[in-house]
Amino acid sequence: MKDTVYISGHKNPDTDSIISAICYADLKNRQGYVDAIPVRLGNLNPETKFVLDYFNVEVPALKESMLLQVKDLNFDRAYAIDPIIPVRVAWDIFQEGLTNSLAVVDNDGKIMGIASLSNITKSYMDVWDDKIIGRSNTPIENIIDVLAAKSLVLPENPRDFDGKMTVMAMNDENQDFDTYFSEGDIVIVGNRTDYLDYLIERKVALVILTNGSSLDKDLLENAYKNGVTILSTEYNTFMTSRLLPMTIPVSHVMTEDDLVYFSTNDTIDLVRETMAKSRFRSYPVVDENKKVIGSISRYHLISSNMKKLILVDHNEKNQSIDDIDQAEIIEIIDHHRVANISTTAQLFYRAEPVGSTATIISEMYFESGLRPSKKVAGLLCAAIISDTLLFRSPTTTDVDRRILDRMSKIADINPEEFANQMFKAGTSLKEKSPADIVEGDVKTFTIGGEDVRVGQVMTMNPEELEPLHDEITSLMQAKIESKGESTFVLVLTDIFNETSELLVVGEHVEDIEEEFGHKVTNGTISAPGVLSRKKQVIPRLTNAFVKAE
Questions:
Q1: Do the bridges between strand 34-41 and strand 262-263 make them parallel or antiparallel, or are there none, so unpaired?
Q2: What predicted TM-score, i.e. pTM, was given to this entire model?
Q3: Upper half-sphere CA count for residue 26 (Cβ side, 13 Å)
Q4: Given Cys at both, which of 82, 125, 226, 355 links 388, Cβ 3.0 to 4.6 Å?
Q5: DSSP H or E stretch at residue 132
Q6: What are the structural domains, with CATH classification, of the chain?
Q7: For 379-401, how does the pLDDT look when each residue is reduced to its tens digit (9 = 90+)?
Q8: Which backbone phi and psi does 54 adopt, to 5 degrees?
């Protein structure tokens, strides 16, 4: 079985982050070594939504934790039974040695109870009262099935089994049978068929003939008239009396209260804790609708491993999933500086000084000997255009240009025309609230031992931000206070005029102002020619923080 591997970009994902995860998963799956699943660590921005809609690509699932969950285990198939089946059938299942616990489910497959091996054995070994068949509402079908019986008489209105179970074995003609037999009784008869007239007239509920015995026509008709059910089994009297209590439905012996079962979303830590407090050998697994889909035992926990994770477009712990320490990082594909991700085992690490992670993944496609599909090529084009701002960004390299030219031919798109559509879709601020802007394309960097939040807003109409200035800065201040970060820098980038303004709150405002060489005007620091957060903002912020020490 292939290992499942999750591929994730950074928090507050941009187009390159989402597309790189999707396309690298496609490459991995085509190579066939793993089952790769692209995931995201936040909501899509308008630009990325446009790209996925344009190429009709499904949005990756949101991943909130790398903690191992029940659904990540290769748990056993479900052993689910109907509540009406006889305990004998449950016993036979246990004898096959495949499970020690059965989930009892309703008609919709939802769990009602649990029937364990101990439930079944206890029910048989306990001292039974002789009215257990009636008290358990045992259907006649159960009796027929367990005894492999032939129905000789099945009245339209049969009597209820509300009496006792009796074996007719006496041979005393002076015996007063009225003290033994009552209406509603179940009577097992061996070769004492001479008393059947009496039993029928006594209106017992059920007569079970053993050793394959039969009755004449008159007796059968009389039984039908009196509502007495007559069955015939090939078993002898001893075996019949032994098997009869095992016809009761499993619902009568199952555990209903304080059921112990697990959802597919339960963490393995919770499962371990729960199992340590219970005595069962296996436990049902249910889906979100409480439908039983499998079972789990302690063995599955022993054999479990951490989730495997591939990082694309980032290598900083602050930018990755919160509980990344719970995952096994097996690869990193990135185009940023090397930061603070640490691993306990060897991994594949590929980082190149290019404008987009999608550029690297495109190279890996061609190196593998696999040609990307038209759709995948289109996605990769979009990511390269986005991260390089169609080659306006100083991070752009000749490799980006070469790869985009090659991929655009496979995708059959015009890069300039597509870029215009994509940027228009992604940069409009009309429907964005101040909170959307502050929570959008934002990354946390560790600079000089301090956590610094740096966001970027691309726009074709920078004047749209002016009315929102005060509210945005208030939200920025509240954000770093809640996160314990020192500084928040929001880069407001005018794509076509190739300039930015820096909105700064928190510490080091003067240091940042000095580094960029422009005074604060209208609450922002002018940064002409600055387009790249990675190449033009982060290095200068680093210089500013170093000087401040």
A1: unpaired
A2: 0.64
A3: 24
A4: 355
A5: helix 132-135
A6: 3-66+306-427 (3.90.1640.10), 76-124+252-302 (3.10.580.10), 153-231 (3.40.1390.20), 434-548 (3.10.310.20)
A7: 999 999 999 999 988 899 999 99
A8: -60, -40
